[in-house]
Design a protein that fits this description.
single chain; alpha/beta; six-stranded parallel sheet; two-stranded antiparallel sheet; 15 helices; 8 strands; binds 5,6-dihydroxy-NADP; binds zinc ion
């Protein structure tokens, strides 16, 4: 087993306690709130009204920044920081999916400094303080609600980067599965792919503690068990709740106990697709994972075989990759670039982009030759 450190201070409130618990939770940090949300789903489905009722009846002062995009961008983070500084807010409240929460995390850093927030994303600057962040999750996928990571795009520099820092842990995250009932079928599927991909990124990281492998397999198996039921019954609260918990557990640290961390090579591949083609995050991963596994089928044969044993009752490497790919396809997530209409010259642009941004994993390094092979395998 390798050396490792564990820390996770997030208070998780799972269920429909928001009405009673949100006000007291926020009051600990102040009365002046910066509410961050996306492009409209929270208003359309009534979550915004529910939260505003709590805030207005609790006497909070609220400034709003809306319009955060899926695959969020640094320009919105900068604009929200400006607003929050003008309004002298005490606490940031994120209402949305991973894009809203990730933006809110970097906003909470930006509020405490004159440093441009992109400097944090490139790891050139190190934050010293953050405005307290509380989140209300509306989409089960990223695990951002219980981790210290944020991923933001910058179209000027041509990068989608992840930043990890303990200051990014939300103080409290509210997970009410009722708030996910409206997530459309495609994003429900992308969320399931994402949580499985997080489990796999950890699994292929350095270190192989058997108990952690078992946690990881349990999360993936649970998600695979609920996925078809949920996708055929999007308004089933019990199915939603199970997937929501799976997604949080897949990236709150427990799949990295006894490990150096995850590999994250597949996420690096997927982020470039999102940056270039605005591909939803989960969709980019269902395209990238099969290719990555095929590239590593000799170097990681033992790990892939163990995965096959646990998930698909086979230790055959090719069959394991085929079955995982078939699962992604079965939930309606693309498994080839052609399915998202990326073809021809765009393929060499991806290779060039992979070279430019040195796409690689933490444990399994990817060479320029691998980039070419991976793009061929994805096409
Ligand atoms: O913008 P609105 O109108 O809110 O619509 C969103 C968006 O179009 C919609 N949506 C969210 N909740 C909904 C809903 N629609 C109906 N009902 C609801 N309850 O869903 C769309 C996608 O939302 P988004 O927040 O972009 O999705 P997700 O949660 O998958 O977040 C993806 C982002 O998180 C990053 C990804 O790279 C991507 O940028 N990630 C963050 C991680 C982290 N912080 O740990 C790890 C992940 O690997 C990932 O990289
Ligand atoms: Zn992910």
């Amino acid at each position: 087993m390798v050396n490792f450190t564990v820390y996770n201070p997030v208070r998780l409130v799972f269920g429909n306690q928001i009405k009673d618990e949100l006000g007291p939770c926020l009051k600990k940090f102040g009365m002046n709130i910066l509410l961050i949300y996306g492009k409209g789903s929270v208003k359309k489905y009534g979550y915004y009204n529910q939260i505003m009722n709590v805030l207005t009846s609790g006497g909070f002062k609220v400034s709003e920044f809306s319009g955060i995009k899926p695959n969020p961008v640094i320009d919105d983070v900068r604009a929200a920081v400006k607003l929050g500084k003008e309004k002298k807010v005490d606490v940031v409240l994120a209402l949305g999916g991973g894009s809203v929460i990730d933006s809110a995390k970097i906003i909470s850093l930006g509020l405490q400094t004159e440093i441009d927030p992109w400097e944090f994303m490139t790891w050139r600057a190190h934050p010293e303080k953050a405005t307290p962040l509380v989140t209300i999750l509306t989409l089960a996928a990223t695990g951002s609600e219980m981790n210290a990571a944020a991923v933001i795009q910058n179209h000027e520099t041509g990068e989608k980067l992840g930043f990890v820092n303990e200051l990014l842990f939300p103080k409290t995250s509210f997970l009410n599965p009722e708030f996910t009932l409206s997530v459309p079928k495609n994003y429900t599927a992308f969320g399931i792919v994402d949580l499985i991909a997080h489990s796999l990124e950890s699994y292929f990281g350095e270190g192989e503690p058997s108990i952690t492998d078992s946690f990881t397999f349990s999360i993936i198996k649970d998600a695979m068990r609920w996925a078809p039921k949920l996708l055929n019954n999007l308004d089933n609260l019990e199915y939603r709740a199970n997937i929501m918990l799976d997604a949080t557990l897949a990236l709150n640290g427990i799949t990295s106990y006894g490990k150096k961390g995850g590999d994250w090579g597949v996420h690096a591949m997927g982020h470039e697709l999102s940056l270039m083609f605005d591909t939803p995050h989960g969709a980019s991963l269902s395209i990238a994972y099969p290719a990555w596994l095929k590239l590593h089928k000799k170097t990681c044969s033992d790990r892939i075989s163990k995965l096959g044993d646990a998930l698909f009752d086979t230790s055959d490497v090719d069959e394991t990759i085929e079955k995982l790919t078939a699962f992604f396809a079965s939930v309606g997530s693309p498994v080839k670039l052609s399915e998202i209409n990326v073809n021809g010259e765009q393929l060499s642009e991806i290779v060039a982009q992979y070279h430019r941004n040195k796409v690689s994993g933490m444990h399994h390094k990817l060479s320029k030759h691998d980039h070419q092979t991976l793009v061929t395998l994805m096409s």
